[in-house]
Design brief:
Number of strands: 3
Strand order of the largest sheet: 1-2-3
Strand content: 15-25%
Oligomer: single chain
Order of helices and strands: HHHHEEE
Structural class: alpha+beta
Shape: elongated
Distance between the termini: 82 Å
């Protein structure tokens, strides 16, 4: 027999049964998926943020007076200092030198294997203009 409260209705304690096994398994599966995605994709976004910092700090150098080779060397130095080693600057960096400005365009893709036959392709692209 159920315990009855003051008003004669069954108390909340007797009606609550807790989480079901299926609910617990579903919750744990969701948590594992979120953690896996964070661990697999997070480093790529951290690398992208580091690259943005490198390109934003190039304005401290006389970019307008530098050749394309010198600009690539300056960017490569920033990549080495920040441990960004798995990137090919020749394929991902486009340099346009005009009379009054220099435009650097960074564009690349990263493919990350998630599980079984599931891959994620991350695309990063941004242009930087220096006077």
């Amino acid at each position: 027999m159920r315990s009855r409260g003051i008003s004669g209705f069954a108390t909340a304690k007797s009606r609550s049964g807790g989480a079901s096994i299926a609910g617990i398994i579903l919750s744990l599966t969701g948590l594992v998926v979120v953690i896996t995605l964070a661990l697999r994709l997070g480093p790529h976004y951290l690398d992208w943020r580091t690259m943005n910092t490198i390109f934003e700090n190039l304005h401290r150098q006389p970019i307008q007076e530098m050749s394309k080779t010198k600009i690539r060397e300056a960017v490569a130095k920033g990549f080495r200092i920040n441990s960004l080693r798995d990137f090919d600057l020749k394929n991902m960096l486009d340099i346009e030198v005009e009379k009054d400005k220099t435009i650097l365009t960074v564009s690349y893709e990263q493919r990350e294997h998630i599980a079984m036959n599931i891959d994620v392709v991350l695309t990063f692209s941004k242009s930087y203009q220096y006077p």
